[in-house]
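# nightly structure sweep
# worker-07 picked up a monomer target from the shared queue
# config: single-sequence mode, recycle default, output format = structure tokens
# input follows
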Amino acid sequence: MSAMKASWCWRTDLREFRNLSDQRKAGFLLVLEWFENFRLRNELEAGREAARLFWKTEVIRDDREREDWQLEQWESAIQWYLNWLDACAAAQADHRSLPERLRVAVNSAGSRRGLARRTKQCYSAWAARYALFS
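# output follows
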């Protein structure tokens, strides 16, 4: 019998991280929630490629002017998150949130049943929203 993988949550680890002030933590939380929503909406794996795509499409936009302090703080937040992912990989811990794990499970079950891609997306979104609700 194999041991279950530990599941880590970046929000909890950020809240307990001692090297950041409460103000910096609040700023990091804002941009990391934005990044996670972008990543999940586009069904991207957590990692550097998702961070690059997020930075290109959401942060550096022609229609929005960003302050230098914003870019510096957001870059620090993304770097913190990527370091956190590396720590998860080193500890062999699962970094995915409950809604993300549910989406993968429902998508897999739907594939075994031969459901259409949009149907699997709809069912997995329902399951993820219910998990957050409960």
